[in-house]
Amino acid sequence: MDQMKMDDMKNDHQKMSDMQNHMQSMNHDDMKMAHEMSSTGHQMKMDHGSMNMSGMDHGHMDMSNDMDMAGGDVMMHGGSMMHMGNLKVKFWVSVVLAIPVLLLAPIMGLNISIINLNAPLAVGIVIVLFDSALYFYGGMPFLKGAVAEIKDKSPEMMTLVTLGISVSYFYSLYAFVANNFLNPANHVMDFSFELATLILIMLLGHWIEMNALMGAGDALQKMAALLPKTAHLVTETGETKDVAVADLQVGQSFQVRSGESIPADGVITDGQSTVNESLVTGESAAVTKTVGDKVIGGATNNNGTLTVKISGTGDSGYLSQVMKMVQNAQQSKSKAEDKADLVAKYLFYAAFGVGIIAFFAWLPQGLATAMTIMVTVFVIACPHALGLAIPLVVSRSTSIGAQNGLLVRNRQAIEASQHVSHVLLDKTGTLTEGQFTVNALVPSKDVDEQTLLTRLAALESNSTHPLAQAIIAAAQAKGIKVEAAQSSQNIPGVGIAGEINGHQYMIVNGNYLTKQGIQFDQAVADKWAAKGNSVSFLLQDKQVQGMVAEGDTIKAGAKELISGLQKRGITPVMLTGDNQKAAEHVAGLLGLKEFHAGLLPNDKQKIVAEYQAKGNHVIMVGDGVNDAPSLAAANIGVAIGAGTDVAIDSADVILVKSEPSDILHFLDLAKITNRKMVQNLWWGAGYNIIAIPLAAGVLSFIGIILDPAVGAAVMAMSTVIVAINAMGLTGEKIKNE
Ligand SMILES: Nc1ncnc2c1ncn2[C@@H]1O[C@H](COP(=O)(O)OP(=O)(O)OP(=O)(O)O)[C@@H](O)[C@H]1O
Ligand SMILES: [Cu+]
Ligand SMILES: [Mg+2]
Questions:
Q1: Which of 189, 182, 110 is nearest to 370 (CA)?
Q2: Which parts of the sequence belong to the P-type ATPase A domain (predicted)?
Q3: Distances (CA, A) of 643 to 277, 316, 532, 646, 725
Q4: What is the rounded distance in angstroms from the CA atom of residue 630 to the CA atom of residue 352?
Q5: pLDDT at residue 52, rounded to an integer
């Protein structure tokens, strides 16, 4: 799941929209669940624990089906999800079923019960009946979970719980038969009281867990709530009619009045207003929008009335893409999560091993005591909290990131950030605005300025490079009618070639001329480059017809980023396809010491590999097509939100606001996220280092022996602590850190 592509997202759009509709129509309780489902996985019809994330990569999501189980609760364990039935109902029914057992069954070790009836056989039968109901009804989620885990050859937490309740149940059955029929004189202790309390606490623990879970990823929920339910559709006759947002179609127009939310993506065809897109893009200020500007569904319209032509509705809209990306990021499995699974596995074997050893060690004290100890060990080790430890933190962290304009597409990026020593930054479009102005046109002899500019513009009209746009704008400003060149061809890292009136022309940089041994006025070119200009040359055959120098402006946050990285002990390095002199100029302005200029696209990738070969972990930040390979190759690829789709598809993290200093926010968020993960691993599993030996009775010589119910309570506590600790991760911290 590391390489999630936008395409996958698009395929799932239909289902996505189904889900949104469901989300909108569901009540609060179901909403939680829908959200958990959405944040956890594709294959929701899976049974307990049998799903692991790696298997989900190509899993087909069938949201509409899954949503039918809206009455059930779903929970996550170590990234896997299980359908636990409706835990709330299950818990309360089990409470009722447990009452007779709790009243009539002897309390462990005391051999007395709350109500003592002098009819042992009748009482025994009642207890066995209610035990069975509890075991098969209340215990079913755990039994199913265990079967799935064992089938999967990865016995984990459900297997542990099942061990605990099964041992209590079957031993109690045996006690009933033995005491009433086999050998009434030799009383066998029964475990019905423990069975009941255990199942109740387990169910309660999971139920609490579910409730704790719901707050974890509220960004998605908030995002889903951004879209209004109805829209004012503009009909063919020009009147407005209120329709459901789900019925809007691309090409239709709608009206948004002041104070309303915009129902879909589109282009303004009438009106002017300020629009607040903060919840969608993380951009805080209200932006003025007028005819021709794009608006995003989910943004709020402040003062004016706008008429908007739809370019993307619900499922194909920006908002659902963002939501989908958040979901995908939440699904992608991180290394820490593998660590959590591994810990769970070790925990199972440790608990199982210690439990068995303790059983035999305590056997001389009587079967009942040995059983109790073993059951307590099984129960205390139950790693529910562990299963939640990482997913809760990650989903919380991705949500916070999304609210701050950071889309973390690959969870691994969060952990990988701990080891980062170098941040490699593309220049144009990343550190600079990528909005050029033509500063100089220097025609060669026999060529006039007008002709030079006309030919440059003809070639560039086929290019999407930022340098191209400035040339076209300059030509248009001079009143030149730009006609596109024929059979044009991009030359990555060099320029562009094409045919004008049957002649071959090229736009190339100085490097190319030097390599080809073509003469040009180096002094003039250097003069402009030293001022930070990108310099390009027009070639007809092998003749230089002139030169164009274009300047760019440095982004506002670029300097802050460089000094922020240096403060964090990370070395910033600039990589650029631009010339050495221009690169030097920008590096000087930003206080950058390391940079590489004149790079071809695969040079950038090579440089990434070189840094890595020296044992460094690198972040690569870029925006262009020429950055895509290096983004994919870097330990963490970060794309600028305004960049090309190719770059975005290759990245692990996207800076929605296109603000380079957000990399600092990412690093800070990742840092506190990692800290929480480690804390949660200790709260979720580390406590067993003490708890398991304690449960096994190592302190029995000073009178400390834990009861199974105490074991269950400790387990549930740990789960709650982990959930609360994850909630403590807030967005404020990434701004102060
Ligand atoms: N369409 C074009 N018009 C003019 N020059 C171009 C064009 N495409 C590329 N070049 C030349 O090739 C160089 C490298 O281009 P490339 O796209 O690899 O890097 P860049 O985007 O300019 O810089 P950076 O790597 O910092 O983003 C440019 O600086 C320019 O000299
Ligand atoms: Cu548990
Ligand atoms: Mg670039």
A1: 189
A2: 226-327
A3: 19, 19, 22, 8, 36
A4: 47
A5: 30
Please give the average pLDDT of every successive group of 10 residues along the chain, which has 737 residues. 35 35 33 32 29 29 29 35 64 94 74 71 91 95 89 79 84 85 73 83 69 46 70 88 87 89 89 74 61 84 88 74 59 52 79 92 86 80 70 79 81 85 92 91 92 94 83 93 82 86 93 92 93 94 93 91 95 93 93 92 86 94 77 87 66 84 92 89 86 87 76 76 85 60
Pairing of β 306-312 and β 543-551 = unpaired
Contact between residue 386 and residue 536 where contact means Cβ atoms under 8 Å apart: no
pLDDT of 33 reads 32
Reference 208, options 713, 682, 695, 730; nearest CA is 713
Backbone angles phi, psi at 641, to 5 degrees: -55, -35
Assigned token pair, 349:
């074997």
Beta bridge partners of residue 618, listed in sequence order: 422
pLDDT at 211: 55
Helix, strand or coil, per DSSP, at residue 686: helix
Given this model, what pLDDT does residue 1 score? Answer: 32
CA distances from 353 to 348, 360, 443, 509, 620 (A): 8, 11, 84, 70, 47
CB 463 within 8 A of CB 496: yes
Q: Could you tell me which residues come within 8 angstroms of residue 698 by beta carbon, excluding any fewer than 6 positions away?
A: none
| Residue 718 CA, ligand 2 centroid: distance in Å | 9
- Predicted confidence at residue 18, as pLDDT, reads 35
500 phi-psi bin (left φ>0, alpha ψ -120 to 50, beta other): beta
Strand order across the 495-500 sheet:
437-443, 543-551, 534-540, 503-509, 495-500, 486-491
Long-range contacts, 551-554 (Cβ 8 Å, 24+): 551/436, 551/437, 551/439, 552/428, 552/432, 552/433, 552/434, 552/435, 552/436, 552/466, 553/432, 553/433, 553/435, 554/431, 554/432, 554/433, 554/586, 554/589, 554/590
Residues 323 and 15: their CA atoms lie apart, in Å, by 13
| Per-residue tokens: 403 | 């609210």
Range list of H helices, 178-317 = 192-214, 218-226, 278-281
Decide if 426 is catalytic. yes
Closest ligand 1 atom to 494 CA: 12
For residue 588, what are its two tokens? 């000087």
Element (H, E) at 269: strand 265-270
Question: What is the per-residue pLDDT for 325?
Answer: 59
Catalytic residue among 426, 578, 662, 707: 426
In angstroms, the CA 211 to CA 389 distance is 15
Are residues 274 and 302 in contact, defined by beta-carbon separation less than 8 angstroms? Answer: yes
What's 118's DSSP letter? Answer: S
Q: Which atom of ligand 1 is nearest to the CA of 493?
A: 18
Report pLDDT for 208.
63
Show the ligand 1 pocket: residues with CB < 6 angstroms: 426-429, 460, 463, 465, 467-468, 493-496, 507, 509, 534, 536, 576-578, 624, 626
Q: Three-state secondary structure along 552-570?
A: CCECCCHHHHHHHHHHCCC
CB atoms within 10 A of CB 577: 25
Give the per-residue pLDDT at 649.
Answer: 66
Contact indicator for 311, 267 with CB cutoff of 8 Å: yes
**Could you tell me the distance, in angstroms and rounded to a whole number, from the CA of residue 48 to the centre of ligand 2?**
14
